[in-house]
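Troubleshooting log. The previous run stalled partway through. Resubmitting the same two chains, unchanged.
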Amino acid sequence: MRRTKRLSLLALLLVLALVAAACAGEDGGTDTEQPETGEATGGEFSVQICEPQFLQPGNTQETCGSQVLQALFDPLVEFDPETAEPSNDVAESIESEDLQTWTVTINEGYTWHNGEPLIAKNYVDAWNWVAYGPNAALNNYFFANIEGYDDLNNTVDPCTEDKSKCAEGETPDEPDNEDIPAPKAETLTGLEVVDERSFTVTLSEPFSQFPLTVGYGAFYPLPEAFFEDPDAYNQAPIGQGPYEMDGKWKHDQFIKVKKFADYAGDEPNADAIEFPIYADINTAYTDLLAGNLDITDTIPTEVLAQAPQELGEGFQSVPSSYFGYIGFPLYEEPWDKLELRQAMSMAMDREAITTAIFQGTYTPAKSIISPVVPGFREDACGDICEFNPEEAKRLWDENGGPDEITLWFNNDGGHEEWIEAYSNQVRETLGVKVKFESLAFTEYLTLQDGHKLTGPYRGAWVFDYPSPQNYLEPIFSCGGSSQEFGYEDAGCEEATELIEEGNATENLDDAIALYQQAEDKILEDLPAFPTWFAVTNAGHNTETVENVVIDVFSFVRLEDVRVIGGDA
Amino acid sequence: MGRYFIRRVLEVIPVFFGATFLIFAMVFALPGDPVRALAGEKPLSPSVLNAFREEYHLNDPLIVQYGHYIGGLVQGDFGQTFQGEPVIDIMKEKFPITAKLAFFAFLFEAILGILAGLLAGLRRGSFVDNLVLVSTITVVSVPVFVLGFLAQLLLGAQLKWFPIAGIQNGTKSYFLPAMVLGSLSLCYVARLLRTSLGENLRADYVRTATAKGLSRLRVVGRHTLRNSLIPVITFLAVDLGFLMGGAIVTETIFNMPGIGREVFLAVRGQEGALVVGIVTAGVLIFMFANLLVDLLYAVLDPRIRL
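Second attempt completed without errors. Output:
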């Protein structure tokens, strides 16, 4: 008896203590927010990332891996964080007389983290490796405009891939790997080493924007060590940038980098950077508030309303290159009808959605070319992108709009809220029933590629390099690598010609004028309508770091960050 | 006993093949193209798509793919992910983390759960009994992610008693997630034991024991508790199996790179080899945990013969 009594008393005390502790925590919160003194030794800071897919230039295309590679590599061309104005970085010069054959010369003094000097051959080898189909590098398509690309990439008959692409009377072969012969060549004919410091790039067609494209991560060079064992390289990449790996990539935990002593460029501020890997951005945000994390470049939508107050000066909302749109399956009735597409666009109240759902941080889009690149016009779209319920309803009814439509989107990217808002607007404006097809991303993309969607769908684009061309050619040109609207059947030729003309124009202003004409034409045909341009909502701990600059690529400018109390 | 043991171990073999094939078929049946998804919203060259499909036999029919997989398996090769990482390495790295988390969660729920159940069961209707009742109902009805965030904010961000996320602070990092992970089962254990104790305390043999003049401690400890623990042990063993399978929500919230999160991401990315490897390992662990319980029964209750 006595024993149990004592035990119950103990349990009671424990519970009371817990409750008391919890309560005390609530009002004592503000004074305990002191930076941990152990953190600031010699200027180290931490930046939140997610688990990268790959850590090698040929394969890294998502943002988390790219952010780490920015510490490890130095690009040929860099961009001003605010204006996106290009300037040579590793490149001493990138020149061409005919916009087709470009000579790239690299600066002297660059070395790899393993001590080998950086030479022109490192670029040529790297680009050849990525462009060679059987290497299965995700960034392969970036080299498609270099002469000789086709000989490195054998493809299956499109008919075998997808029955809808078969010519009349043709029956698809069973997919069979043995039928794909090895590519004819292993190196691009368009790449040639001139000497230690320069090489030439011959494109299949003139392209004025070429110097901008090589600022992208796919165009980083690769050291000899990579080719010996790409998988091992992936765990601890060797670069030629301001920071080198400090230990291996600890999957799902962290990646650490430290200052590279022999870096040829401007010395970075901090001595070391840690990239803790978070599975959930909410956790990262809590860690930021608790003082365990210095910088995050993603703030969860759920806390967007309170973030400016909680982070104070540490909250930043910076324009990003993200362009959102609603695309149409032009191959599917009734979406081949222009007027119905226009009605769908006019039925969207962009302001209402950006204010209510994105807390006013996103900008309603009335053009395709984003404000972060030259050539942006605020209202390229005109009336078609204005909310106009009467006109939308009139167009819809006069052109036999259906009673029921299906909106397609992927359910793993936080799109439910605004899709639902938009569907309500469509329902009210056009008086139609709206159904949803919400799919996993894998399935969504496959159906999109295979032209299997039956209604308007969500899409988005983030640029690879700051050129208006990058918003047009990949997504809207006839053979565009990401053009899935079926624009071929709706007159993509005219816009494509204008883009190509722009590509072949040397003078930037003239090229931009042509790109804008192409943009006008696309908005006239409306295979997709613009929804909004997004921002990067970032946060940092003002007590530990300063000078946190987020560029238009949504990346933290790592070399600029200053650690408060660090010795840098 | 020996024969029983061997029979149970032999049962593992058909379950192993059944489980691997079923899981393999399910991953195979998932719609969408995993290679295409690797590139996200960016385009992918057809030649790259082909190279991937060829390397991972994605163009082959299900049975051929399964054959490749099992063929590799008998040679000790668990396959690799699309990123070129061997599956075995991932399992070696992730299972210990989940096991450690499971261990602490198990300790937490077993010790506190049995203690709370004992107190409540012995003094029915008392204040302590009601306290246990109310608090367990509260915990059971709150979703685990709410518990997780609350614990992070109060014990992590404000009081700074525990690290919030990751495993970089050693064993200390495991306490908070283990508490959240174990809290739900703690409630079940407490209530299960309370009920079971209540029944057994009224049993004839307990009355006899008391009548014989045995001390309360001996009556409860020797005669009642041992019997009452049987359902609790059953529950705990099954729960240990679940815990070892990884906890997706808790691991995600607390940023623990465990097996639960890994399998979730693997399913989403349709990484067949990885899913099959992890889930099969999970199945095996579960089976052995159950076997262990069945053996334990005999220890607890001499009337049970195997």
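Takeaways: Chain B touches chain A through 71 residues (CB under 8 Å). The mean pLDDT of chain B is 86.
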